[in-house]
Amino acid sequence: MGSIGVGVVGLGWAASGHLPAFHANPHADLVAVCTSKTPEEARKMCDCPVAVYSDYDEFLAHEGLDVVDICTPHHMHAEQAIKAARAGKHLMIEKPLAVNCDALLAMRDAITRAGVKSTVYFELRFIPHFALVKSAIARGLLGDVHYLEVDYYHGIGPWYGQYAWNVRKAIGGSALITAGCHALDALLYFAEREVEEVYAYSTRSTAPDLREYEYDTTSAALLRFADGTCGKCVSCVDCRQPYLFNIHLVGSKGTLWNDQLWSTQLEGVQPDQWIAVPTTRAESGDTLDHPYPPQVNEFVQCLLEGRDSAINFEEAFRTHRVIFAIERSLAEHRPVKLAEMPA
Q: What pTM was estimated for this model as a whole?
């Protein structure tokens, strides 16, 4: 396979972050899009003479289409991914994979049966800050990490592009599903251990301009891992503050707090002062600020070499399994063991 024919479904905000990454990759060829925009609008946005479809089935039949990049609202991901997998297309899927567990399981069945390759856009795994965190853990600067806290604070109100549909439970899902899933995925990525049980609470803002939300706009989840380690993940889309992706890991030999570090493994450090570590953090919810190019490049290279992505469907399924355990805890007001969830 010398060139990868890419098709994008949904030319919204997410796609605006993906398109430059496709154009920049010499092995990715944007051949088709499926959108409600006019052909003129679509081609202007894509900045190339791409084939434009309004019918998804016709789009899937486009000659030379190898990969489908799903950038539609959350509730459409499952059906579109299933159809694409059955058509033999490899998949690039925006988070979240689905807004309910049944849809997630149906996607898994279709992708497994089809044997197609996939990547799911937990693109923050590619930022330098995440590499720093993983390196600090691997090099023993934190020792045995026994507490992990990763939180997502991003006010999504009428001032925000996706607000109109994000407020609906059938589309947005929840504060965790729609946005905080990035934080939960990061927590699990850093922990590298199995979750045993979750317990979650939720609440919502009383702000008049957020009253259209059909679900609680802040949730706090506690996680217990099989080895006794514990963690916490807050998902807050009703905050009045700048965007904050908070990372706090506590270990037997040190602590990492966002871009600051303290460790007994380093000589000459002041006992009461953090060590500031210059790095690139997640500091915006804007798709144009997210590291799509390295994830696109990784997946294209995987396809050229006939292997799957490091963030394939199965990897993302593990994160979503915990997400839906948390959602069950919120709905049933009780702790939920992961053994209760479909595996």
A: 0.96
CATH fold of 4-124+290-312 reads Rossmann fold (3.40.50)
Residue owning tokens 């039949």 = 61
Among residues 44, 46, 118, 51, the alpha carbon closest in space to that of 80 is found at 118
3-state percent breakdown (helix, strand, coil) of the chain, nearest 5: 40, 25, 35
DSSP conformational letter for 180 = I
Structural domain boundaries in the chain: 4-124+290-312, 125-283+320-340
pLDDT digits 0-9 by tens, 142-193: 999 999 999 999 999 999 988 999 999 999 999 999 999 999 999 999 999 9
CB 248 within 8 A of CB 149: yes
The answer as to CATH 3.40.47.10 being correct for domain 125-283+320-340 is no
List, in order, residues 6 or more apart from 63 with CB less than 8 Å away: none
And the tokens for 94? 């925006």
* CA nearest neighbour of 111 among 135, 70, 83, 130: 83
DSSP-derived pairing of the beta strands 218-225 and 230-236: antiparallel
Phi, psi (5° rounding) for residue 130?
-65, -35
- Tokens coding 266: 């380093």
Cβ neighbors of 204 (< 8 A, separation 6 or more) are 210, 213, 215, 216, 217, 218, 238
Cα dihedral 289, 295, 301, 305 in deg (nearest 10) = 180
d(CA 264, CA 254): 6
Q: Which residue has the tokens 């460790």?
A: 263
